[in-house]
Design brief:
There is one protein chain. This protein is an alpha/beta fold. It contains 17 helices and twelve strands. The strands form four sheets. Strands 1-7-6-5-4 form a five-stranded mixed beta sheet, with helices on both faces. Strands 8-10-9 form a three-stranded antiparallel beta sheet. It has a two-stranded parallel ribbon with strand order 2-3. Helix 2 runs antiparallel to helix 15, helix 5 crosses helix 11 and helix 15 crosses helix 17. The two termini are 32 Å apart. The chain binds ligand P71. Ligand P71 binds next to helix 5 and helix 6.
């Protein structure tokens, strides 16, 4: 911890290059708890941070989803909700914002990301199909499987190694994708499921060169490329920072170019777009659009609200524009990087390079004495909560679920505990508190003993599973 107090961002980079590009107008008090209270709360939650009450949490890093702070402009927009059942003015504002910043032609609103995933999967996938993607995401893969597809991970091998410093660990391995096309045939692949950034790999970006190459390969075989655009704004910053030819280009320009190599996208607007609820789907193909627009009325709501209130759509339309501002994205990703640099300096094992939305603690190296079947990442999430009331999320064997054919656990290479940073919510002082708590857990790592799963639900088990300490 020597020299700890000297490590401001400014001193790391000769001078401070940025500060949060906002000031605070309204505050929400935080509640600190005692260790006894946390022990009781954790027991009641079955050692699963998803089952804790938010009231019992001090700094909430469970997710960056729906947890961001809206701006004064977005709150003002909430008062302009046009709550007409059909044809709400706010819908047209949303449609225009997506067309302007993402460049797609046809828009379908949904209540959140998984609503969009459900519609696109049911519309494009036939039973027996295969969907390649750059690493799985829990809800995305589940909807693909429920529609009858088999998911294939075609991300580059480097993505599975938490210590590999590849600048674009979200890239698709073109040889793996080509091999799959050869093996199953292009007609069995309705689309490539491309995410930017890749959440489960640690928030890792895809390069512009890679999406261009994926598009070329897919065009030769008549396969669509569909983008999970959930954190694409953050991906755009990494392209500006790391890819030749993109230095000095704006986030908005890079975003638009990236999307131009894809045939459509789905979005959980609860992340990049700075709203508490919302999502959308967008495609360029009119026939696909008409099918999606027909299906949305079955599951979400009429095609001009898709499960959102008019005021939600207004806040979202404004959030899209705020999300692509260069100073916003730099400070958002900069805050994540600041936390990562503190932990790196203290030799705490995290996924490198640090991604866009979160720090991922490498629970395998944190707890080398724990077998994966003892849920090391879940254990670490529980220990962090006990230490300080910080809530994190398991992204390891519990999240990976079971193989639908064999019924055995999927055992992912990455066994991670995610510290996810909400946008515009916490300050640098909070990041310091988080780093110190992680350090305390690291110093007492040998005493961790692991967990056994005592209750396991059928779908997305990590949300509701309960564990007992060994
Ligand atoms: C995150 C979430 C929310 C979440 C979902 C499942 C388990 C735990 C937490 C949601 C995403 C996402 C990507 C890349 C689609 C969704 C679904 N992420 N794609 O990271 O990260 O969107 O939550 O709006 O339905 O905490 P949805």
């Amino acid at each position: 911890m020597t020299g700890r107090s000297l490590h401001t961002m400014g001193q790391q980079h000769d001078r401070r290059s940025w500060a949060e590009p906002w000031k605070i107008k309204m505050v929400e008090p935080l509640r600190m708890t005692t260790r006894e209270q946390r022990e009781a709360a954790l027991r009641e939650a079955g050692h699963n941070t998803f089952l804790l009450r938010s009231e019992d949490v001090y700094i909430d890093l469970l997710t960056d989803s729906g947890t961001s702070a809206m701006s004064d402009r977005q709150w003002a927009g909430m008062m302009l909700g046009d709550e007409a059942y059909a044809g709400s003015r706010n819908y047209y504002r949303l449609e225009a914002a997506i067309q302007r910043f993402y460049g797609y032609r046809y828009i379908v609103p949904t209540h959140q990301g998984r609503g969009a995933e459900h519609l696109i999967s049911q519309t494009l996938i036939k039973p027996g199909d295969h969907v390649p993607g750059n690493m799985y995401f829990t809800t995305t893969r589940l909807h693909q499987e429920l529609a009858g597809a088999t998911f294939h991970d075609v991300i580059i091998d480097e993505a599975h190694d938490p210590q590999d410093l590849h600048p674009f660990k979200g890239n698709v391995d073109l040889a793996k994708l080509a091999a799959l096309i050869d093996e199953v045939g292009a007609e069995k692949i309705p689309y490539v499921s491309l995410a930017g950034t890749v959440n489960m790999a640690g928030g890792q970006p895809v390069s512009m060169a890679n999406v261009r190459a994926v598009k070329e390969l897919c065009d030769r075989h008549g396969i669509r490329v569909l983008l999970d655009a959930t954190r694409m704004v953050e991906n755009a910053l990494f392209i500006a920072e790391r890819e030749e030819g993109y230095a000095g280009r704006s986030i908005a320009e890079i975003l638009l170019e990236f999307c131009s190599y894809t045939d459509g996208a789905w979005m959980s607007a609860k992340k990049d777009h700075l709203v508490n609820i919302g999502g959308w789907l967008a495609v360029n193909d009119q026939t696909v659009f008409e099918e999606l627009r027909n299906l949305v009325v079955v599951y979400e709501g009429l095609h001009t609200y898709g499960g959102m209130a008019g005021r939600d759509m207004e806040a979202l339309a404004i959030g899209i524009e705020e999300a692509v501002q260069d100073d916003h994205v730099r400070s958002r990703v900069g805050q994540v990087r600041y936390l990562g640099e503190l932990l790196t300096e203290w030799d705490i094992p995290i996924v490198q390079p640090v991604g866009g939305h979160a720090i991922f603690l490498d629970a395998r190296r944190f707890y080398p004495h724990l077998a994966q079947d003892l849920f090391p990442a879940q254990t670490l999430a529980a220990e962090l909560y006990l230490d300080s009331g910080i809530r994190s999320m398991e992204r390891g064997i519990a999240s990976a679920g079971r193989n639908p054919v064999t019924g055995d656990h999927n055992r992912p290479k990455l066994e991670l505990t995610r510290l996810t940073i909400p946008r515009r919510v916490y300050t640098q002082a909070h990041m310091d508190v988080v780093a110190e708590s992680v350090k305390a857990c690291y110093d007492s790592r040998e005493s961790a003993r692991g967990l056994v799963m005592r209750y396991e639900p059928k779908y997305l088990r990590f949300f509701q599973a309960r564990f007992d300490p060994l």
